[in-house]
Structures are given as C-alpha cells and as structure tokens.
Amino acid sequence: MIKQIEIAVNPDQVDDSPFILKRLCSKLKVASEDIWDWKVARRSIDARGRRPLYRLRIDVYIEERIPALSPPLSTMNDVRARPEVVIIGAGPAGYFAGIEAIQLGLKPIILERGKKVQDRRRDLKAIQQDGEVNPHSNYCFGEGGAGTYSDGKLYTRSHKRGNIQEILELLVAHGASTDILIDAHPHIGSNKLPKIISEMRETIEQYGGEVRFGHFVTDILIKDHKVTGIQCEGHDIIPASFLILATG
C-alpha cells in the first residue's frame, strides 16, 4: 500500500532519515517495520513564518518496495540506418526532439547555425571585451540556445502537454542534480548547464543521430505542399521529408 503525506521539518532535519521515519510512523500510526520504503516526491521552502521550514510531500510504501524503474535512456537504439527527420535548432527543444526521435526509431539530423557550447565562450568573450558580435554565435545563437548561459531555472505553468518528470529524469541522466526531481522550483545552475547540453549532444551522436554546426538555414524547399529539402548557407541541399522547427 502506498500513502502520500505531507510533513514540515526544520532545515537541519530535512536530511535526517531516522527523524523523518519517526514522523511518518507517528502520522500514519504504524510501526517502523511496516514502512519498507519511502521517498520524497516534492520539497518546498515555506518562509512565511518567523522560522523557515521545509515542506515535504512523501510517498510511503507500507509492506511493499519502491518499484524498479527503467533508466530514461533504456529505450534508445541505434538509428544510423533508420528514416531521417531534420530538426532546425540545437537548443533544448531541438535536443529533446532529437532524443525523442531516437526513442521512436528515427534518425535526427539537427541543424544549428551557431557553434558548440564550448566554442561559444570565445565569441561571448569577444562581445564582452571587444564589442565584436558574431551574428551566428552569441548569447542567442549556438548550441543550447539562448538559455545556455542563464541560471538554469526549470519552470512551466503547463502540466498537460507532456511528461515533465521524464524531462527532469533525462536532465539528471546527463548530469543535473537529482534535487531537480523533487524541488518545487527546480534549478540546474549556470555552471552545470553547458556540460549537460554537450552530454545530450553526445547521447544523440552515440545512437546515430547527427548534429551539424555552422548550418544556417536559408530556405525550406516545398513541392506539392510537402517538404523536400533544406537549404543552408554555404552547403548543399539536405533532402528532407520530415521537419521539426525548434528555433526558439
């Protein structure tokens, strides 16, 4: 049996497992040996009173264990020989679309006008120190998109457009802290974001997807109301039957 309850604890008690277990037993009126497992499902800070508190929403497993879950990348297979889908943009939407495509058995070809996240640093330095702006690699354009060098807040008002938990688990699989799985206002941190972005690219490439930098899309070719190809500045036409716009 699984029960979900909420408790409030002081900041110095939030990681005190024996104390929390005792609180759970008291609130549920069960013996400690009846609680086989428990996990924090949501954690938030309540600063309305004189002393701040942590409010914990906890899933309590009574006489049963937490079920084993499949790793978030367990459904990934090699897609090198699979049908291709072109994705324009290597920001969060583009990379998550690429991973989803691989999970569905499609080969993503991601086109990005800018540079890899590590190489963007030089262009940002040129902006800050010399006032020189590369129109294709700057704070807006390049791997990871405009949010790569932000503080990494993860916030959405919509809970009806997809599995948000799956997104968070994918971020954790690529280096984000497990805290984002339970925090009411999850936050990755600007110091971690660039590494996570590059790890996501490596996953896409590992399973046969492609990420092509320096590909500035200038035209989408259409015939008989169907996409037939993508024209990039300075490159040959890329044949395409399926296209996802993830341009931010």
Please give a handful of descriptors for the protein shown.
248 residues, alpha/beta, Alpha-Beta Plaits, FAD/NAD(P)-binding domain, 2 domains, four-stranded parallel sheet, three-stranded antiparallel sheet, 5 helices
What does this structure look like?
With about 250 residues, the chain is α/β, with parallel strands linked by helices. The chain folds into two domains: about 1-60, 2-Layer Sandwich (Alpha-Beta Plaits), CATH 3.30.70; about 85-245, FAD/NAD(P)-binding domain. Helices cover about 25% and strands about 25% of the residues. The chain is built from five helices and ten strands, in the order E-H-E-E-E-H-E-H-H-H-E-E-E-E-E. The protein has helices spanning about 15-30, 90-105, 115-130, 165-175, 195-205; strands at about 1-10, 35-45, 55-60, 85-90, 105-110, 210-215, 215-225, 225-230, 240, 245. The strands form three sheets. It has a four-stranded parallel beta sheet with strand order 6-5-4-10, covered by helices on one side. It has a three-stranded antiparallel beta sheet with strand order 1-3-2, with helices on one face. It has a three-stranded antiparallel beta sheet with strand order 7-8-9, with no helix packed on it. Helix 2 (about 90-105) runs parallel beside helix 5 (about 195-205). The two termini are about 45 Å apart.
